[in-house]
Every structure is written in structure tokens, then in C-alpha cells.
Amino acid sequence: RMWLLVFAGGKANFYLPRAGEYTIGRKGCQILLEDDKSISRKHCTIIVGESGVDTKLRASVHVKDSSKFGTKVNTVSCTAEGMELSEKDILQLGVSADCFFQLLWKPFVVCFSTISQEYKNRCKKKIDEFGMNPQIYYGYIGRLRKVKGNIR
User: Fold this and answer.
1) DSSP E strand stretches across the chain
2) Distances from the Cα of 102 to the Cαs of 10, 17, 67, 122, 152, in angstroms?
3) With bands split at pLDDT 50, 70 and 90, how would you rate the model's confidence at 120?
4) pLDDT bracket for residue 141 (50, 70, 90)
5) Alpha carbon distances (Å) from 141 to 18, 137, 147
6) How many helices and strands, by DSSP H and E, does the chain display?
7) What angle do CA 94, 100, 101 make, to 5 degrees?
8) Neighbouring C-alpha atoms within 13 Å toward the C-beta of 100
9) Distance (Å, rounded) from C-alpha 30 to C-alpha 47?
10) Within 13 Å, how many C-alpha atoms sit on residue 40's CB side?
11) Is 142 helix (H, G, I), strand (E, B) or coil?
């Protein structure tokens, strides 16, 4: 599982897949918002903590404001000292009426079909490179049926 910032109106999603700092701003940041002049060059920082090996535990998330026009969490002004975030919190950046994010906790699911152990190991290595800790399930499907039409 990982944290996800969903931009207002579904314009964009920003995944926060691993522990660390994610800077939001107009220039030189991991999350760029270049079109809004009320967003500072380095507006705020999202800090994601370690989740450990238990994939059911949520990593802590904090936000620290470093902007001219402010950052709000559920209408409460954030400071440079920061504040803790929870799932479904709403972040407003700057003074624009449409610069809102919602913080969500999303599952990261990995499914393997009948593939070789070598390929499974290669996939697991790639997942580890991303710093994610998904719960991986291996299973067996006994009987497959032919499906007519499109699968959605």
C-alpha cells in the first residue's frame, strides 16, 4: 500500500511510494504545479515515514509549509513546524480556488500468473527497487474457460 495525493477534479494523481520527502512547488520539485502564481517555488514538503514490514500499517505523513500564500489542511493553516496528515485530509495550496489535493491510502497489488520462478524473482527485484513493500500472493487457477467478447 502507498499514499496517493489526488488533485481536485481528478486532474492528476501523485503517488508517494516510499518513505522520504516530496516537495511541492513551481520549480525544481518532485510535484510541480507550474501554472498557479500563488504556489511558491518550494511551497510545501510532504514527509512520508517508514511503514516497516507489516503491510497493513500505514506510514505516517506530515506536511510542512514553506510558502508565501500558505498551505491549509482541512481549512486549518499549516506552519513551518508541520502537522500530521490522515487519510482523506484535504490540502489547499496557495489562494486559488482549484488547488486542492486529497490524501488517500491505496493498495499496491501484484498479481502473477503462471510464470517462471526466474521471472517472479525479476519482478520482485524491480518492486524492491521502487522501495515498495507489497503483499504478494501466489495462487493456482485450476481451470480456465474461454471468454467471448471484450473483458473490461
Assistant:
1) 2-7, 13-16, 20-25, 31-32, 44-48, 61-65, 71-73, 76-77, 83-85, 90-93, 100-106, 109-111, 135-137
2) 10, 16, 19, 34, 27
3) confident
4) very low
5) 32, 13, 15
6) 1, 13
7) 125
8) 12
9) 12
10) 13
11) coil
Amino acid at 36: D
* 36 in Cβ contact with 100 (< 8 Å): no
Instruction: Kindly state the cell numbers that stand for 61.
Output: 505523513
pLDDT band at 2 (very low <50, low <70, confident <90, very high): confident
- In angstroms, the CA 105 to CA 4 distance is 6
- What contacts 89, CB < 8 A, 6 or more positions away? 73, 74, 102, 103
Beta-carbon contacts of 69 under 8 Å, excluding residues fewer than 6 positions away, are 38, 39, 40, 94, 95
Residue 104: exposure state from Cβ atoms within 10 A (0-12, 13-18, ≥19): middle
Q: Is the Cα dihedral 29, 59, 137, 128 positive or negative?
A: positive
* 15 pLDDT tier (thresholds 50, 70, 90): confident
